[in-house]
């Protein structure tokens, strides 16, 4: 499987509803970094109180 964004071999693949998408190492890291900085993830963290120390 090839990366969704370039012609490199995919290092990771995700599947949902029968659709499979691959990402090379570089593009996987880019997507994870973008998610880590997203407002959506911040909202989820706030909802589940992910930073608690209990």
UniProtKB/TrEMBL annotation:
Pfam families: DUF6757 (PF20542)
Name this protein carries in UniProt: DUF6757 family protein
């Amino acid at each position: 499987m090839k990366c969704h964004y370039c012609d490199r071999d995919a290092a990771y693949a995700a599947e949902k509803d029968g659709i499979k998408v691959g990402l090379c190492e570089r593009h996987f890291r880019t997507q994870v970094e973008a998610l880590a900085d997203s407002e959506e993830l911040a909202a989820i963290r706030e909802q589940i109180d992910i930073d608690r120390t209990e």
